[in-house]
Design brief:
With 153 residues, this protein is mainly α. The chain is built from ten helices and two strands, in the order H-H-H-H-H-H-E-E-H-H-H-H. A two-stranded antiparallel ribbon has the order 1-2.
Length: 153
C-alpha cells in the first residue's frame, strides 16, 4: 500500500515532530483530526491492527470475554493467550483468533480495552508513547493520516 511506503519514508520526520511539537496544541487538535480520519477510513477494509498486533488483555478483559464465550478464565487464557516479554497477556497467534474473514470481530461488544481505544489518535497516548505511534503509522492508515496532517500544517 502506498501510504505504508510513505509512512516508512517519513518516520524520521514524524519522530522529530513528536519530540519537538507543542503537546498542548496537538492534543487540542486530536479530536477533530481523529473524526476527520475516521470519516475517510473504514476499519473493516483494513483490519491491519487485528492482523499485525495483539492488544494487552487485562484481568477485567479476560473475565468479561471468558464470560461472554461461556469459558472458565483459565481455559480462555490457555486457549487464546500467552505472556509476552513485558508479562502482559497477549494473543497466542496473529491474526487475532476473533477476526473473521470479513474483518469483523466476533467479540466486538466485549473486546479488550486496548482494542476499543486503538489507534489512540484521540488521546495523549499518541504523544506519550511515541515509539508506539511511529510503529502504528505503518499499521494504521488513520495514524498515518493524522501524522501527515500534523506535520504538514
Amino acid at each position: 500500500m502506498e501510504w505504508q511506503k510513505t509512512a516508512k519514508e517519513q518516520k524520521k520526520k514524524y519522530a522529530s515532530f513528536l519530540k519537538k511539537c507543542d503537546q498542548r496544541k496537538v492534543i487540542r487538535q486530536l479530536p477533530v483530526l481523529h473524526e476527520e480520519a475516521f470519516s475517510k477510513i473504514n476499519c473493516l477494509e483494513c483490519a491491519n491492527c487485528c492482523k499485525n498486533h495483539s492488544p494487552r488483555f487485562k484481568i477485567p478483559d479476560i473475565k468479561r470475554i471468558a464470560k461472554h464465550l461461556h469459558m472458565k478464565e483459565g481455559n480462555f487464557i490457555q486457549t487464546y493467550l500467552r505472556l509476552d516479554e513485558e508479562n502482559d497477556y497477549v494473543m497466542q497467534q496473529q491474526p487475532c483468533s476473533f477476526l473473521g474473514s470479513d474483518n469483523y470481530c466476533s467479540i466486538y461488544d466485549v473486546r479488550p480495552g486496548d482494542c476499543a481505544r486503538y489507534p489512540y489518535t484521540d488521546e495523549d497516548v499518541l504523544l506519550k508513547r511515541q515509539a508506539l505511534t511511529l510503529k502504528n503509522t505503518e499499521v494504521c492508515p488513520a495514524v498515518f493520516y493524522i501524522l501527515e496532517k500534523l506535520t504538514n500544517i
